[in-house]
Structures are given as structure tokens and as C-alpha cells.
């Protein structure tokens, strides 16, 4: 994943984090809706179109995640932002495989690929080998 791509996910994560915290909704809105014209600075060369990254699915999955636990989601967002800084974003924590972009577009903060996530969440605990 190149820098330009991770930057887009970073924006998504920061917007989500803002929305979850509820204290910076204006900022989240700015990240989601006002990109090129008002963001300025280093964002000027990076148009973000949420439509390009599957907004509908994104919103849907996000709502589902919210229902699970806001705190867990927030922690996952923070961890994902750290992985972006470390250059490890998009890799599954469990199997170290690449997480498909379609999944990242739906759940940008996910630490696991589909396979590992279902394995981990299927019975509430990792399956012993
Ligand atoms: Zn995995």
C-alpha cells in the first residue's frame, strides 16, 4: 500500500474517531465532506471521495461496529493509526497476511483479515491449534 493510499485511510480513521468521540463532529464532517476546497495544506493534492471507497458499505459496517462497542472500536482506530505510522497498516495481526482493500474500505480500523476475524469472533476466542 502506498503513502497516498494510507493517507486516505488515515483520513477515514480520524473522521471515525472524531465521530465516535462526539466532541469533534465538525472535524469529522470536514474530513468527510470538505476535502479539496477547504482542507488546504498537504491535503490539497489528495482529493478524497468517500464514494470511491465504498461509503454505503462503510457506513453500514461502521454502525454494526458501533453496536459492538464504542470503546473497542476507538481502541482499534487508535491502533490502526499507529500501524499507519509504522507502515504496517493493512496487514493482519494474526496471520500477517494482507487485508483486502474491500475490507479496509468497509472497516478501516480492522486489525484482522476476514478469515482471522471470523475465526476469532466465531466462538468468542481464538481456536486452539
Ligand atoms: Zn489473518
Task: Characterise the protein shown here.
Helix content is 60%, strand content 0%. By secondary structure, the protein is mostly helical. Helix 1 (3-21) packs antiparallel against helix 2 and helix 1 (3-21) packs antiparallel against helix 5 (70-86). The longest helix has 19 residues, at 3-21. The radius of gyration is 15 Å and the shape is globular. Zinc ion (ZN) binds at residues 92, 94-95, 97, 112-113, 115-116.
Q: Topology of this protein?
A:
Elements lengths: L2 H19 L3 H9 L2 H4 L15 H14 L1 H17 L14 H6 L7 H9 L7
Helix pairs in contact: 1-2, 1-5
The chain binds zinc ion (ZN).
Helix content: 55-70%
Stretches with pLDDT under 50, minimum 5 residues: 35-41
Classify the beta-strand content into a percent band: under 5%
Largest sheet: none
Whole-number mean pLDDT: 75
What form results from the Cα inertia axes? globular
Q: How far apart lie the N and C ends?
A: 31 Å
Structural class: mainly alpha
What string gives the helices and strands in order?
HHHHHHH
How many helices? The count is 7
Bound molecules: zinc ion
**Radius of gyration based on Cα positions:** 15 Å
Q: How many strand segments?
A: 0
Summarize this entry quickly.
By secondary structure, the protein is mostly helical.
Amino acid at each position: 500500500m502506498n503513502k497516498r493510499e494510507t493517507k486516505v485511510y488515515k483520513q477515514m480513521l480520524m473522521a471515525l474517531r472524531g465521530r465516535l468521540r462526539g466532541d469533534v463532529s465538525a472535524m469529522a464532517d470536514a474530513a468527510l465532506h470538505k476535502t479539496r476546497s477547504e482542507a488546504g495544506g498537504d491535503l490539497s493534492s489528495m482529493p478524497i471521495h468517500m464514494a470511491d471507497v465504498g461509503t454505503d458499505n462503510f457506513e453500514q459496517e461502521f454502525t454494526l461496529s458501533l453496536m459492538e462497542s464504542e470503546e473497542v472500536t476507538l481502541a482499534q482506530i487508535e491502533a490502526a493509526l499507529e500501524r499507519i505510522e509504522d507502515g504496517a497498516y493493512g496487514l493482519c495481526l494474526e496471520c500477517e497476511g494482507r487485508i483486502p482493500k474491500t475490507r479496509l474500505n468497509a472497516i478501516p480500523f480492522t486489525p484482522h483479515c476476514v478469515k482471522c476475524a471470523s475465526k476469532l469472533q466465531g466462538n468468542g476466542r481464538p481456536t486452539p491449534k
